[in-house]
Amino acid sequence: MLTLDPEDSLDFLRTARMATYVFLISGPTLHLWFNFISKLFPKKDVVNTLKKMALGQAVYGPIMKSVFFSYNAGLQGETLPEIIARLKRDLVPAITSGLLYWPTCDLITFKFVPVHLQPLVSNSFSFLWTIYITYMASLKKADACGCGHEYVAVVK
Q1: What is the structure's pLDDT at 5?
Q2: Which long-range contacts (CB under 8 A, 24 or more apart) does 139-142 make?
Q3: pLDDT, tens digit, for every residue of 114-156?
């Protein structure tokens, strides 16, 4: 049976932050992105599928990861220098991890799924990704002053 210790109880504030991000930012941008990219590359052949994947990894992914980390840190009360330090620390590892995860998801989505269902399928793949990205977002504040403070993840 899966149980939580009292100190590990559900964090409603973090849940609310994630829900508002998904409903206000992620969901609408995915809808716009998939419609845009399907008009840019309408065919589902291998070349166009690879173009969609590459554009997603080069443009959409880095932008949305930056938005996610900034949004989450801002709602946690981090200052602009702290948000910038967090992006410097966390963005490249998140993009690198995304390059390992998302191409397979994108291949399946772009090659086999009708455009109107692509955001739904992508959100399904996002479930596992969200576990990783929220872990990254849960890391303590980054060193904004450049004085070498080490911050580690709070993992229980």
Answers
A1: 58
A2: 139/86, 139/89, 139/90, 141/73, 141/78, 141/82, 141/85, 141/86, 142/82, 142/85, 142/86, 142/88, 142/89, 142/90
A3: 999 999 999 899 888 888 888 888 777 776 666 555 444 433 3
Structural domain includes residue 124: yes
Interatomic CA distance for residues 122 and 120, integer angstroms: 5
Q: How many domains does the structure of the chain reveal?
A: 1
In a domain, 146, yes or no: no
Q: Is residue 142 part of a domain?
A: no
**Average confidence (pLDDT) over 99-113:** 93
Give the range of the structural domain holding residue 40, as residue numbers without chain letter.
Answer: 12-137
Residue predicted with more confidence, 39 or 12 = 39
Model pLDDT, residue 95: 94
For residue 90, the SS3 value is helix
Q: What is the pTM of this model?
A: 0.78
Question: Coil, helix or strand for 56?
Answer: helix
Q: Let me know: does 115 contact 42? Beta carbons within 8 Å.
A: no
Residue 145, in any domain of the structure: no
Residue in the block written with tokens 């410097």 = 88
Encoded amino acid at 96, one letter: T
